[in-house]
Structures are given as C-alpha cells and as structure tokens.
Design brief:
Distance between the termini of chain A: 25 Å
Radius of gyration of chain A: 20 Å
Shape of chain A: globular
Strand content of chain A: under 5%
CATH architecture of chain A: Orthogonal Bundle
Number of helices of chain A: 17
Number of domains of chain A: 1
CATH superfamily of chain A: Farnesyl Diphosphate Synthase
Structural class of chain A: mainly alpha
Low-confidence stretches of chain A: 1-5
Strand order of the largest sheet of chain A: 1-2
Oligomer: homodimer
Largest interface: A-B, 40 and 40 residues
Helix content of chain A: over 70%
Largest sheet of chain A: 2 strands, antiparallel
Order of helices and strands of chain A: HHHHEEHHHHHHHHHHHHH
Amino acid sequence: MTTASATAGPDLVEATLAADGRRTREALLNHLLEDGLRAELHELVADYPLRPGKGIRPALCLATCRAYGGRNEDALPAAVAIELLHNAFLVHDDICDDARLRRGAEALHVRHGIPRALSAGDALAWAALGPLLDHAAALRPQLAFDLLAEFDHLARRTIEGHALELDWRERDLTGLDFDDYLRLVLGKTCWYSAIHPCRVGALLGSGGRADLDPIARFGFFVGAVLQIRDDVENLTERSDSGKDFGSDIIEGKPTLMLIHLLRTAPRAARDEALRLVGPAGERSGLAREERIEGVIALMEDSGSIDHACAYGDGIAGAALAEFTPAMAGLPETRDKAFLRSLLLHLGDPAIRGR
Amino acid sequence: MTTASATAGPDLVEATLAADGRRTREALLNHLLEDGLRAELHELVADYPLRPGKGIRPALCLATCRAYGGRNEDALPAAVAIELLHNAFLVHDDICDDARLRRGAEALHVRHGIPRALSAGDALAWAALGPLLDHAAALRPQLAFDLLAEFDHLARRTIEGHALELDWRERDLTGLDFDDYLRLVLGKTCWYSAIHPCRVGALLGSGGRADLDPIARFGFFVGAVLQIRDDVENLTERSDSGKDFGSDIIEGKPTLMLIHLLRTAPRAARDEALRLVGPAGERSGLAREERIEGVIALMEDSGSIDHACAYGDGIAGAALAEFTPAMAGLPETRDKAFLRSLLLHLGDPAIRGR
C-alpha cells in the first residue's frame, strides 16, 4: 500500500469497504460451492451471503492485516470465516427474534421454516472451520493455534452475549443502566464485529508479532458504535423498505434509547412504554405500527434518540483515541487511514445505502 | 489392558460402557464448569449432559484408543468433544422435530422456549472446540490437524445428513428404498455416533499410525445398527415412560419400518399409513395415540418391524465381518473384545436400561 495522509475521505472508506467486501464475498461463495453441499442445503446456506451487507467485518480484518504489512491472501480465509460466522449468527438470531426481514428480503426461517433455517445456520457456522483449518495448517503451529483460539473465543463470547440478551428481554428492563448496555454490546456484537476482525488481521499481517491488547480496546469502541448506530437506524429509517423498521421495539430489545427512556422519562411515560414494548406489548391490543410509533414518540419527548446519537459520537471519539496506541509505529498507509476514518464516514449516504 | 478372550460377555460390555461413560461425563461437566459460562446459560448447557445416555460414543472412542495401545488421557478430550457435539445435535434436533421428551424429561425447548434452547445448542457445539484445541496444541502438528479435520468432517456430515432428513420428510416417502435409508443413516448418525469416535480413538491411540479406512467401514455398520435399533425401540417400548413412544410416526421420520410398510403393504394399507404419519396426519382428526397405534398395527400386519429387526441383525453381522480387518494385528485385549462384542449385547436388559 502506498503512504497517504493520516485521515481519509468518504471515498476511500467507501472504496475499501466495497473492494474488501467483494473480495471476501467471492471467496466465500467459491468456498461454499467447493464444499459440495447438496443443492437444497447449499441454496439455504448461500442465501444470506448473497444479500450483501456493508462489509465492515471483512474490511476491518483485511485492512488491519495490510496495515501491519500483510497481503490480502494472509487474511482472506479468516475474513471468509468471520463472514460465515456472522451469517450463521444472523440466521439463528432471526429465529430467536422471530425477525421478518433481513437485508431487504424475508428472513430465512420465514421462507423455509424453523427446522431448515436452524440447520442452515449450523451448516454456515461449521463451514467456517474448513478455510480456517486449511489456512492454519500452512502457518507455523503457534500462529495456527493462536488463530484458532481467536475464533474459539469469538464464537463463545458472541453466543454468551446473545444468551445474556435473551435473559434481559424477559426481565425487568427498568433496572438496566448504560454500563449494562455496554456489557451486553461487548458480548453480542463487539467481539465478532470488530475486536476479533482487527485482532485476527493484526495477528496474520504481523506474523504473530503485533500486540493485540490495545487493538482489543479500539475494536470494543468500534463495535459499540456500530451497534448503537444500527439500533438508532432501526427507529429512524422509516422509508427504507429493506429494514424491519421498529422491530427492536416489538422484540423488546434493550437498546440505548429504551434504557434512556425507562431511566429518565416521567412515570406515566415509562409505564406507557412498558405497556407497548416486547412480547408483553401484544396484550395492549394495539397494532404493531401503533406500538412502534407510540414508543418512538415517547423516546422523542425524552430526548432518548438524541441521547443515543450523542453517546455514539462520544464512543466514536474514544475509538479514535484508542486508535493511536493500537496502531502506533505502523507506517501511514491508506489502510491505516481507512481504519482511523471508518467511523467518521459510516453515516454518509453512499455508505449507509450499501 | 490385560489380554482376554476374543469375545466378551454382557458384563464386560456393560462395565466398559459404564466406566467410559462416567469418565467422559465427569470430564465434560468439569470442562463446562471451568468454562465460566453465566449461571443461566450454564444451567441450560449442562442439562442434557446431566441426563446420561448409554455412553456408546465415548466408549467407542476410548476403547478404540486403548485397543491401539493408547491411554485414556490420550483420547479423553476428544471423547468429551464428541459428547458435547452429540448433545448439541440433540438440542437442535429436538427443536426441529418438536420432540417432547429427551431421556425421560422434557426436551430443552419445551422447558425454556426455542430461542434459549437454540442458543444453548450453539453454546454446546462451541464448547467442544476448547478441549480439542487445548489437546491438539500438545500434539505434533500433523496429528493435531488430522484430529481437527476429523471433527470438521464429523460436524459437517452430520448437519448435512440432518438436512437430508428434513428434505425427505416433506417429500413423497413412498419413493424411498432401503439404500436411501442407509444413505440417510450414514449422514445423520453413523459419522458422529460410530465412525468418527472409532477413527479418532485409533488416530490418538496409535499416534497417527493406524489405517483409518477399514475402521470407517466397521463404524458405518455399527452406526447403522444403533439407528435401526433406536427406531425399533421407538415403536416397541410402550412401557418406558422416559421414551417418547411412537414420536417417529408423528414426526414422519423415514424409518426402515415405514419404508418397508410403504413398499410392501397392499394399496389400502399404504394409503391408510400415509393418512396417519407425519405432519399431514394431523388432518386425520385422530388423536396422537390412535395414529401411532394405527400405523404400528399396519406395520405388524406387513411384518415391517420383524423385517427391520432382521435387517439390523444382518448389518450387525456385517459389522463383525469388518471388525477383523479393521483391528487386524492388535493384541487381543479386553477393549478389543468389548468392541467386537458391543453389538451382540446392546439388546440386553441391563444395557438397554442404562
């Protein structure tokens, strides 16, 4: 990579996301084809990967690898494995949440029923192991086992985080505070969406020499920002038919906005919110849309959505502060600029629409 | 192990199953405790492992390891991983089948709902990777990657086999023949229940020197017998309240008895069977028990259950024939006698009741 200035504009961010996303998706789909699954199962397994997302995870992994002096080939199998696990989590999460839409089309279990979707999610998760083992066998043993240990940790922490969210949804949401939220997001999102993609990229790009601890702190803040912005979008992007607008309210997801509302709103507003959110909200007798708009109006009255946006910006600042020690001593490449600038530009329309 | 005669009585078989089952269960439960899962998730993850089965998989793995000259420690982490995956498959299968009972108590999703059970199944599967990676890191690299590749293959073939069964249940069962059944059983049962337990035991017991191909053939026949007997028990063990008697008929599972009935019975009996089995049978308006007893009566008229028993005995004979080349050249130890005699005694009351 050629050297470049320390910050990057939205064009570089968009171009890197697009190129790394495409590179990873092509390798992933080739891997699934070579895997020789029966046609019926292959169709289900390839469904979500064929609905591309923003490509943030593979870009974090590959750009970090290159920032540490590695080549794309050094981290591509790991980026493929991360994307496969991401899609596996999505399939199972959609069953657990009874989500209707995923990336603009019906969720897999809505199309094919729970048994087939569950089994496709299992197949996606195990499909991740193949490229990793092939890749690891060509590395020196210590690096190979360090790489496998990263994935072991990634999967286990994510599943634990998801189980924690399921527990919280069924409990009294009024007791949660912002630290609880960050703990939840660390578990269910940060490890697999940012910390491990960056750590694995650094591990492979540096041949095992990178110090991974400061990278974990940077990744934590990046992951938290991704989750907060995702949660805000779920309640603000009314016009985008590809999103399941307001589903977090119907599912009773403990988002920053909901926690803020329940902690700061007057008692009457809090009681009204609790009457509408989550599975218990079905007893209100109101239609889905009425429940969603009702809770959003309460959140707007309490400034909960503005608060979440400001909180997210603060955490983006913390990510930037952690970036410097995390990538200290690395040359000022385009990839380093991309990593430093990603959070600045994620809200830009060209990137949001991806 | 001391040398012993070539065949073993039911006592040795029972004692080996009991000892290896207990050894593996203790190590498994210790591993789950050390894993530090949150109490809520730990409770769900440990639930099925705390309901012991016959312990056939760990005994196959550990006894094969010892038969090849290895110690229990050489294969115990692998046996733990096999049992964890087995339990993970059971949890997800029970969701897919909407099974009510598992080993004498409510299925996990009946107790805790689908989202929590699904997530506990994921956690069980990933819990298998930890002991394997710790163990593999202490082996020479080639053996370590061979071991991990066995587990990769085990999981992927099992999930594919399960997906195949889901496909078949929704199609016309009348087109299936006995070869289809064996192909199905190879996929969904044989790899994880017998072939890989034996292969992994031989790999670790021999330090990578064993020829695994004849062991795979022996394991295939062992696994097929286990599945056939399990299917027969589901339709014959009326008195055992711990079993979900007749559930295979309600779920529309393509068993050997059902395939035989649909291939050999007169047209009227075949039509009557199709009216009662599987999800479509709900439209018959009959109660669950009436549907089960109705189909069993048709199977008895057609000799389908006797046919399945005889077919299973024939395959047990094939397993015995494959045993000789598979374990050729190994000293005549108690473990070799156990492996040779396991299928002979699985039907004995003391072992069936385990």
